């Protein structure tokens, strides 16, 4: 089973591909889709879609995992994240991928066993669980890995 974890954002969309076999879960790839500040919003959203399609074609995941929407204090930021998330969901649907939604609480529990874990605790556990040498940067990448980890735990092998 291959799953694509996504941490959506207009400037940076983190992604991670995890593969689960009977023996283990392996991180195959991770990174950020980055758009240019100051570029028109439609062009930035199209960049996310184009790059995401390339990732899907290259790694051929069976499912995509994305966090459920939450309400942020900054309405403009929430709108931009919501638009990027919408692009991800539509791209996944076009690619006929199973879409798994997880809450931030479910991500924290999957990674640490504790729903009130802070960002650093989640990052540290992801490094241990996947036997990584260091915490991937930027934060959007490790967030995408944690989201994929939560998603893979919600699928049947």
How would you characterize the overall build of this protein?
The structure is a single chain. The protein is of the alpha/beta class and 157 residues long. It has one domain: Nucleotidyltransferase, domain 5 (2-Layer Sandwich). It is 46% helix and 22% strand. The protein has five helices and five strands. The protein has a five-stranded mixed beta sheet. The longest helix has 20 residues. The chain is globular and about 45 Å long. It is found in: Cytoplasm. It is an enzyme of class 3 (hydrolase). Belongs to the RuvC family.
Main beta sheet: strand number and arrangement? 5 strands, mixed
Measured between the Cα atoms of the first and last residue, the distance is 7 Å
**What is the helical fraction, as a range of percent?**
40-55%
How many separate domains make up the residues? 1
The total of helices stands at: 5
Task: Provide a quick synopsis of the model.
It is found in: Cytoplasm. The chain is α/β, with parallel strands linked by helices.
Element layout with pairings:
Elements: E1 2-7, E2 12-20, E3 25-34, H1 41-59, E4 63-67, H2 75-94, E5 98-102, H3 104-112, H4 119-129, H5 139-152
List key phrases describing it.
157 residues, alpha/beta, Nucleotidyltransferase, domain 5, 5-stranded mixed sheet, 5 helices, 5 strands, 22% strand
